Amino acid sequence: MDQRMKTLVYAGLTLLLTLSLIAFPDQALEAAIRGLNMWWEVVFPSLLPFFITAELLLAFGVVKFIGVIFEPIMRPLFNVPGAGSFGWMMGMASGYPTGAKITARLREENQLSKLEAERLVSFTNNSSPLFIFGAISAGFFHDLKLGLLLAVCHYTSNAIVGICMRFHGKRQERFRKQDSKRFSIKKAFQEMHRDRLKEEKPFGEILGDAVINSIKTLVMVGGFIILFSVLIKLLFLVHVTPAVAVIFQSILEIFHLPADLSLPFISGLFEITLGANMISQVTTDTLLQKAVIISFILGFNGLSIHAQVASILAKTDIRFSPYFFARLLHGSIAVILTLLLYKPLYLDRKTINLNEVPVSQLDPNSSIWMSIFYWMKDYGPMLTILSIIIATCILFHRKRQIK
């Protein structure tokens, strides 16, 4: 696209967004508050400990230790260094965009090549168990057993994507002599010690940097969540989303899915939480139809997550296009697994114990993930405010020292 045309497109879209905000100020404010509540109640407090821990583990060489230990597994399976296992595990535990954040940090420290980083980020940006079991399964569907089906399909398909993406960029990659040494705890410890000695900062400064960097990233994440919450609302108000939904209705009918799922599906392509909530409220013949759509949007991640990942990767030389392709592949594989595993992981589990109380009548609070979710909503805002105050104090203290 010509640069002048880009300028016109960007300026035109920004002008339309501005006019829409002026035309619908009340609805935009309501959507912004909804996005803000989601960020400071759940997203910030749930991700902050993982981000800080990741920064500290990188600084103290623990990631190097993990890399040496898991090199014999990660290299043959995914064609990435063993350090990639740290991003994979942290991504599965805490959800997006942790995988992208850790991949970018590993690339900045030259523990990954450009192609290895593109492979790693393609399968480490997962949904967290808290979101799958707590928000979707128990919170939206009030069906605790649905979480198992969604989680198995989500994480298994993600691993398959990682195996497929191992071939990404193989032609451009220079020949690299493989490390022939066997598994060695001693070597892993030596590498960890050598890596820690490179960090000459005192512990207090390292901890402060971890807190500041983590909060900066989470503030950026919060901005994207609020922006897309408002954007989705405005697109609905100006009748763009309903018009696009008409096109998706015919596509869904090809796959024998209800046309009523088209609007929730489009919303899910923008923002997963909103889409999953809308899908749970649609009446369908079987739950399988809803599970298929949710599995796809979980794998695709949603454009809100894409924007967050793109912003994180923009600071490095990691390209975004392989990640986008991997998300489409992840969603497609997740749909296939959902169709295959729906009966053994959901229907059969519901019919084995006929004397059990129906899942829909179970108390959502009986789920450990839902308990964590509610705890976040109760105490998350306090943790968010406290963390921002601590970050402000650290920055103020450092500014005084510079003076």
TrEMBL record:
Domain of life: Bacteria
A Pfam family hit: Gate
Keyword annotations: Membrane, Transmembrane, Transmembrane helix
InterPro entries (UniProt xref): Gate_dom, Spore_IM_YlbJ
The keyword Coiled coil is annotated on this UniProt entry: no
Transmembrane annotation, as ranges: 47-70, 147-167, 291-312, 324-342, 379-397
Domain (Nucleoside transporter/FeoB GTPase Gate): residue spans on this chain: 42-138, 219-314
Name listed for the protein in its UniProt record: Hypothetical conserved protein
